[in-house]
Each structure stands twice: as structure tokens, then as C-alpha cells.
Amino acid sequence: MLNMIKADFYRIVRSKAIYIAAVMMLAMITVSVYFVEPGSISVGVDFSVDNGMGSGINDEMAEMDYEQLNALSTKEFRELMLKTTDYSLDRDILAHNMNMYYVFIFIAAVAVAADFSGSCVKNTLSSAISRKKYFLSKLVFVMLVCAVMLFLNTYLMYFGNLLFNGSNLASDIWCVTRITLMQLPPMLALASILTGFAFIFKRMASFNAVVIPFVMVVQLVLNFLAFLLKLPEKTMQYELQTMLAMLAGKPSASYILQSYAVCAVIILAFTAAGWFSFCKAEIK
Description:
Elements: H1 2-12, H2 16-35, H3 59-62, H4 66-71, H5 74-81, H6 89-95, H7 100-117, H8 120-125, H9 131-165, H10 173-201, H11 204-229, H12 240-247, H13 253-280
Helix pairs in contact: 1-9, 2-7, 2-9, 6-9, 7-9, 7-10, 7-11, 9-10, 9-13, 10-11, 10-12, 10-13
């Protein structure tokens, strides 16, 4: 299994997809750092909880109304934000780490879906490699690379913010490291979702058609069900995007344990779904 993981690492560094993912990650970091405001490509999250990141509003901005703020140019808004002293931009960007899901898609696509689309799976399984070993090696590989990309994103963002925006808007490096470690379980849950879907849908076209809108669709469905069934607001705190946001703030010990339990269930469910689908599949 270790040799298969090494082979996948060798292959992915020579794949265009991983560099597209890296460029996408750098673009999101650059936009967030330059505009001094985290960008998000998923459904919004309620940040009304005490997140410890500060308001991001200084006295000069507080005196402006909405129309005045909206009329500011990018340069003027940036200059105002740089004067803020009670705002941790790096922590706020980490709170929007659901963006990394779209980077992870490239990893699962190269590692698993491309094998099925290129009929490489049949050749691998015919060379005395069991389905179990193949499946586990792919799952471990996707999780490892996703974890590496997560930490790479954190430190590139942290030092980019420190370099271009100064220490005024930056936390200490241990703070962002701790947040990233706390966010690792939900990130691994996202990796398991993508790996499970790759084994279920197999072909690249089917995989992409499902995973690209998946997060937004799930969030919309959950919000609709919460409204329809009048579920307690607390239940929505265990949706993955909200979970990432809260783990970047000041979560209680009980919330951390409960959210990790949800992540464990997600990992087990999608791993099992992917495995059973792979076991029953006719490999061509």
C-alpha cells in the first residue's frame, strides 16, 4: 500500500490538475489579503457568535453610513481596513476555509476519478493488488494531500497577510496553527466525501457533475429543512461550513467534541459507501 501511495505522489506532482488547484488556492489567498476581507464561494454563515476575530470596523468606518462605505473604492476601503486594530484577518480567512473544498476536488479527481476514466484501475487490480489495498491507499492518499494543502494554505495566507498588511491584522503563528489543527477533522470529512463520490460515480464527468454543486446544494437543503421542520438553531452548527467557522473562533470543549463526532460519522458513512460501491463494481 505504501508503494501505491508513493506512486500517487509521484504522479500527482506531474499532473496539471494539482498546479491548477495551487493557482486557485493562491488566487483566493491573494484576493482575501489584498481586499482585507475573506472571500467565500459558498453559502453564507452566521458569524453572530463571539468569534474573537474583532469587528473589522474602526472609528472612521463607524462614522460612515452604508452608502458611504459602498461608495469607497477598493484602494480607499483597503486603506481604512489597514487602520483597524481589533481585527484578525487571518483568523477570519480561516473561518471561510470551506473554499478549500474546491481545491480538494482536483486531488480526488486526479487520484481516483482519473484512474477509472483512464481504465487504470483494471491494470492495477490485475497486478496482484487487492481491491481493499487499492481503496485504502487512495483514501489515505487523498486525505494526506488534502491535509498538506490545508496547512500550505494556512501558512501562505498567514505570511502573505503579515507581509502585505502588517502585524496590525495578524494573529501569532501558533494561533493560526491551532485553528488549522482544530479544522483538520472537518477537512478530512470533506476529503472522505470526495473520495467516496469518486468511487461511487467513477467517471470524471459524473464525479465533477455531482461534487462541484454538492456543498451549496446540501447547505440549501439543510437550511430549507431547518426552516420547514423548525429545527433548533443549534442543529445547524454541525453543518461543515458552520463548523469550520466556529472552530476558527472560540468554540467550547463540548462543541469541539460534538463536531468531531459528526465528522467521524461523515467519514465512516462516505468511506463505507465508496467501499461497497467499489466492491460491487465491474471494473472495465
